[in-house]
Structures
1.
Amino acid sequence: MDRSASLQDYKAGMLLSGVGDALGYRNQLWEYNQSGPVIHKELEELGGLKNITVQLPDWPVSDDTVLHLATAEALATGKEGEELLHEVAFRYVEGMKDMEGRKPGPSSILGVSQLRPGTEGGYRVPYNPEGTGCGAAMRSMCIGLRYPRPEQLSSLVAVAVETGRMTHPHPTGFLGAVAAALFTAYAIQRRPMESWGVGLVKEACPVAKSFVQSQGYAVTETERDWAYFSEKWEWYLEQRGLSNGKGPVIWPEKYGPEERDEAYKSFSLSGWAGRSGHDAPMIALDALLGAGSNWEKLMSRAGFHGGDSDSTAVIACCCWGLLYGLEGVPECNYKKLEYRDRLEKSAEKLYALSH
Ligand SMILES: [Mg+2]
C-alpha cells in the first residue's frame, strides 16, 4: 500500500476498536472467562461472527472503549502540553462514572481516584509498582491518530507516557500506551508490519526513556523497572523471526485457538494472556500479522482467546480498521455499536487536527 490512511480509514479504526472491545468482552462472558476453543464453539452456536448484531444490551462496550473515548475526545479539543494532560485527566475522572457493567481494572480505578485535574501537577499520581496492566495500552490508540507522522514521534511518545502513567506508572504499563499509539501511527503510515516491533524497541522505547529522565518524576523507580518490557518484546520478535524487522514471519506448525491460548500465555507476565502493557499490544500485533485483511481471522486471533480478549481486540481492531477500512466487515457487527457516534466524531476531529 502506498497511500496513507484516509478520513474513512480513521473512522473505521475508531469504530472497529469499539467493535473489537464489545465482541471480546461479550458482556463479561468472554473476557478471561472462557478458553479460546470454548469461545469459538459458542461463536459457532451464535451463527458465527457474520450473524452477531453488536448492540445493547447484550454487547456493550467495556471500560476499554469508555477510556479510549476519553483520551480521544481530550485530544480532539486540540489542546497541547500540560493543558492537554489536565483535559485527559478530567475526562478519565468523568469516564470512571460510566463503568457500570464494564469491569474497569484495579490500577485504572486507583490511578483515576488519585488524579486532581485542574490543580497544579494534578495529572501525576504516586509511583505504583503494581501498575503493569494493559489499562494504559487499551485507551491509547487514538494518540497515534493525533500524531501520525514519523517526525511526530516525540510528541506521540510524550503524550502516551504522561497519559499512560496517570494510572499505570510502571513502565510495563505505560510503555503499552506507547506501543498502542505507535502501532496505529505505523498503520496510518503504511509502514510494513514486520518492522513494527523493532520500531517499538529500537526507536520509540529510547525516546520514551529520555523523556522520562527529562521530566524528573519517579525516575529512579521507572529506570529500575524499565528492562522487562523491551526484553520480552525482543524475545517475541526472535520467536517470530522479526528481530531484523523484515521477516519472513515464523509461525508455529499448528496455531489454532488451543495453541494460541498456550502461546499467548507464554507472552504474558504471570500467565494471564494480554493482561499487561507489553503483551496486549503483542497479541494484537501477532493477530494482525496472521490475519492479513481477513476480518474473521483477525477477531478469531485477537478477540476470541482465553485471556484479556477485549483489550487485545480493541488495539488490533483499531490498527486493522486504519489499514483496511470496513471492507469485509458485516454491517451488523458495527451498525448499532454503543457510542458509534462519539467514536466516529472523534475520528473526524483527530483527522482534521493531524492533516
Ligand atoms: Mg475491558
2.
Amino acid sequence: MSTAWVDLVPPYHNFNHGTDVLLQVAQYALVFGAAELLTPLDVLGLGVAALGHDVSHPGLNNAFQVNSASELALRYADVAVLEAHSAAVVGTLVRDRQLLLGLSDKDFRRCRLIICASILGTDMSTHFKTMERLTKFNDAAPWTAEGGGAAKRDALEAEERKFVCDVLLHTADVSNPARPWDLCKKWSDLVMDEFFRQGDKLCDKEALLGLPISPNCNRASTSQAGCSIGFSDFIVKPLFCQVARMLPGLEGTAVACLASNREKWVDAKDAEASAAAAPAAGAPEDGAKREDTAFDAAGDESPGGARLGDDGAATTVRERRGTRAVRGRFTMSWPRAIVPERGSARRGRSERSSPVPT
Ligand SMILES: [Zn+2]
C-alpha cells in the first residue's frame, strides 16, 4: 500500500487534534459548567467548530502561507488564512452533508455564526484582544445571576454567549501545556515535528536563496523545552487563569498541570543546556545554539501577520527583524524572511516579514 498519504497529513494538525479539542470543549461544557452559560444550540455550534477548526490544515502556518503568497493566502487576502479556510471547509461540509438538517432557519444562522466566529477566534493574532475582552468580561461577571442554570444563561446576551464560545474553543486549542504531563509531552512532540517539517521546507527554500533557517523551525537549534515554557508562561497560563475565573474548576486541574509541567520543562531545558555544554553525537554544534522561542508582545492583527502555534512555538505578527528581550527571560528572535522565488517587488515586501513556525 502506498504511504504517500503520510506526507499529506500533518503530524499535529490532523483529525486527532480536532477530536482532542472537541473533547476539551465538551469537558469545559459538561464537567466544568460552561454549558450553564450557553444554550444547547450554542453548545452544538461550539462542538462542530471544535471538531473542524483545523480541518484541511496543510501543516504550514499562516506566515508560510502569506510569505509564500500561497493560493490560500491569496484567496483570503492574507487575513487569518488557515482559520478562514477551515471555516469555509466546515461550512461547505455542513451544507453539503446537511449536518444541521432540522434546525429552523433562525437556529441554523445562529449555529453557523457560532461555528464561524469560534473558528476564526482560534487565530492567534487575535489572542491579546481576546484576553483584553475576557478580563473585562470577568470583571463584570455577568453570569453570576442568582439561581444558577438557566438564570446564569439568561443573564448573558447572545453576543456574550458567542464570546464565551470563542474563548472556550481558543482555550481548548492551546490547552496542551495544561494537560497531564504524558499528554502534554506527546502533543508537544507532534507539534514540534510539524514545525520542523516546515523548517525543513524553509531550509530548502532559504538554502537556495542563501538565507538562514528560521528560528523555531530549525530542528538543529530550537529548544522544545524553551518553546514550551515560553508558550505556557506568556500565552496559556494567563488565558487559563482568566478562564478559571469563569470556570473555577480549572484552577485545581488545568492551572495546576501548567505549574507541574513547567517544572518538567525546566528540567528538560537544564538537560539541554548540559548536553550543549558537553556536545555528543547528534547534539547541535557550536554556532547552532538552541534558542527559546519568539513571541510577539502585542498580537498584531495586521494582514501580513501570522499566528502563534496551537501548542507551543512562536509566531511573528508584525514586521520585525533582529533580537530583543521581552518580559524577562524570553528572547524574541525575529528571523530573516522567506523570500519567494518569484518577483523582485514581492521579494522586497517579504524581506520585511518574518516567517514563524505554527
Ligand atoms: Zn487547533
3.
Amino acid sequence: MDKALSGIRILDMTHVQAGPTCSQLLGFLGADVIKVESPAGDATRKQLRDIPDADSLYFTMLNCNKRSITLNLKNPQGKEVFTKLIKICDVVMENFGPGVLDRLGFAWNKVHEINPRIVMASVKGFGTEGPYAAFKAYENVAQAMGGSLSTTGLRDGPPLVTGAQIGDSGTGVHLMAGILAALLQRQRTGRGQYVECAMMDCVMNLCRVKWRDHQRLEHGPLTEYADQEFEDFTPRAGNDSGGGQLGNAVQCKPGGPNDYLYVVIQEQVWNAIAERIGGEALLNDERFNHITARRQHQNEMWQLLTDFASDYTKWELMTILNEINVPCGPILSTKDLANDEHVKLREMYVELDHPERGKWFNLGCPIKLSDSPVDIKRSPLLGEHTDEVLSEVLGYANDEVAALRQAGAFTR
Ligand SMILES: CC(C)(COP(=O)(O)OP(=O)(O)OC[C@H]1O[C@@H](n2cnc3c(N)ncnc32)[C@H](O)[C@@H]1OP(=O)(O)O)[C@@H](O)C(=O)NCCC(=O)NCCS
C-alpha cells in the first residue's frame, strides 16, 4: 500500500535514542529504513534487559519498521558496501559522538561527493561548531544545558529532569522536520544538503516560553507565578501553568501519588467554578472576582479548590468540572494509560510479537495521516536483513555476499 514516504530509502546509522526515534517515525510513515549496525549492534539491544538474551525494550521500542544489517565500517569491504548504499539512498542519518564520522571517512563533504542528491542528517549534543562542540551528550545533559532543569521543579527544591525525553526524542522529532524539509527542497534543486540538530538547541526550542518569561522579568514580576519572589532568570514554577491562564495540580481523594487533577482556571469559567464550589459568597468574593485579583490570591484560590476536591476522586472531579466546561485532566500513571480505552482507540499502545521476547507493547505513531495508515512492524534482530538488503537492494550474488562475510565486512 502506498504510504506518505513510500520510495524514500533511509540509511540509518543512528544508535541509542535521539536518532532511532526519528528513523522509527520515518519508518512509521512508510520510508524503507535500513539500520546499519556495527558487528556488536546498537548498544541498547543489551541495555536494561528484562528477558535474558532477548533484545531489550529499550531497543525494540525505538527500532520498529526498520531492517537491520551489520556492516563493519572500519573494514575496507564494509566501507565499500556502505559507499554503494550511499549511492542509492535518499537520506543518511547518524548521531555519533564528535569526530566519529571523520575517523570513519564518511564526513558530509565525502558523502555529498559520493551522492550529491543525498540528504545527510546528524544529531550532535551541541552541534559541530562552538565551544561545546567536542562534548558528548545524553538526555539529561541536554536538559541541563538547554534550560529545562533550571526551570523544572519546586521553587525551593533542586533542579529536576522531566520525564519526557525532550533531549533525545524531542531532538529526533526536530531532525525529522529537517529531513522532510531537505527532501522537499531537493525536489526543486536536485541537491541534497546537511541537516544538523543539536540537542541543546532543541531543548532550548522546547523551553521557548521560559525565554518569554526571562525577558519579561526586565519589566517587573511575573504575576502569574504563585511565588512572587524573583531574581534575574526564569525560576522553577512547580506546577504553575506558565501560560496566560492560571493552572495547577489539585489533590483529590484518596491521596495516592497520582491522585491529582490538573485544572486550568480559564477566565471565562471562573464564575461557574466559584458558584459550584462556593456558591453566591465565593462568586462575590473580591479576592477572586477578577483575573488580577485571582493571580494575587492564587494560593488561597487553589486551597479552596483542594478543600472541595477532598471529597472526590480525580475522575469524579473531572466529571464535575467538565460539566461546566473547565479544561482539566487527571494525572495518569503508565498503568492508567496502558489500560485506557481512549489510548487503545487511538492505537497509542499496541501489542506486537517478537521471536525472542514473545508478546510486548510499543507506543503507536502520534502522527495520523488519512492516506498513510501506520502498520507497526516489530524491531529487527541484529543483522536480520543483511543478506536480503545486499542481494535485493545492491544486487550482490550469494557467493559475493559469502565472500564479503568471510572478509569481515559484516558478521551476520
Ligand atoms: C551517545 C554517545 C554519547 C555515545 O558515545 P559512544 O558510546 O562513545 O559512541 P560514539 O558515537 O562516540 O562512538 C561510536 C564508535 O563506534 C564505532 N562504530 C559505529 N558504527 C560502526 C560500524 N558500523 N562499524 C564499525 N565501527 C562503528 C565508531 O567508529 C566509534 O568508534 P571510534 O570512537 O573508534 O571512532 C555519542 O554517540 C554522542 O554524543 N552522540 C551525539 C549525541 C547523541 O545523539 N546523544 C544521545 C544519545 S540518545
4.
Amino acid sequence: MKTAIGVDLGGSHVTAAVVTDDGVIHSQHEHDIENRSFDAVIDLVVDVIEKAVYAAGSDVVGVGIGSPGNIDAASGTVLYSPNFGWTGAPLGERLRARFKQPVFIANDARCATLGEYTFGTGRESRDFVMLTLGTGIGGGIVADGKLILGNRWGAGEFGHHQIRATDGFVCGCGKIGCFEAQASGTGLIRHALAIAHSFPRSRLLDKSDIGSKKIRKAAQTGDLHALAAWKNFCADLATGLANVIACVNPDVIALGGGVSSAGDFLLDSVRARVDELTTMVPKGTTRLLCATLGNDAGQVGAATMVFHGKL
Ligand SMILES: [Zn+2]
C-alpha cells in the first residue's frame, strides 16, 4: 500500500495528513496561521509536512497540497490568492527545494472534489460536481470520470457566477450577487442581517457569536427570523444549483462545508425549487447529496493527486 502526504492549506490553518492509497487518513498535523506573508506560511507548511513524513514511518511517495486561489497546477505557482493576498507566489518551487519526494499543488476546492469523487459521495458517479458551502463557495467538476481544470485552471469556480447581479450582496471579488455572496455560510448570515429590520424582537443577531451554524440551528427549531433568512438563502442556493445542472448536467452534486451539516433539512429545502428551475434535462436526474468526507476531503484529494501523478 502506498502512502502520501495530503495538505490542506486554508486561510486560518494548515493541516497535513498521512494518507494511504485506499483513502484512509492515519494521522493529521496542524498549525494555525496568523501571519499570512508568503515566507511565514511556507515555514508552517514545511513544518507540518515534515511532522507528517516523520509520523508516516514508512516511505512516502509524494506530497500533495491544496491551496486557495488560482493555481498553475503544472508549476505549482499561486497565480492569485485573495485569501492570502499573494500574486505569482512560487509555492511549488519553494517546496520542491525542501523535499526529495515529488510535490503536487492545486486549488483546494479541486483537491476536495477529487477526494470526494474518488472516496466519498462521488464513488459511483461519472459526472460529478462538488460545492463546498463555507466562508465562500469552492467547486470542482468531474466530467466522464476526469477532473476538469480549464484553460487557466479556473474550471469549477461556481462561487463567482452571478445569481443576483442587480440586488445581491457585494462579493469579495468585487461583483454583485455572486453565488458565494448569496449562498455560502457567510451568505446565510448576510440574509439574516438583511431582513433583521422585519424582526425587531428577534434575538438571533444579539450576541457577538453570530454565525451561520447558529442561524441554521435556529431555523431547524422554528425561529421565525432564522427561517425567513433560511428561505431566502435556499432560494439563492437553488438558483445556483439549477445553473450548475444547466452548465454541467452532472449525475451527482455533492454539497460540503459547514452548511451541509444540516443534511436533509438543507436538501429538502432546495430540491423542489431546483426541479422548478431545471428546464432542459429531465427534472430530478441530478441527485443532490451531502458530501461524506467532511473537512478531510481536501487532504484526501491532495494525496490522491500524488497517487495519480497529476490532478
Ligand atoms: Zn464573486
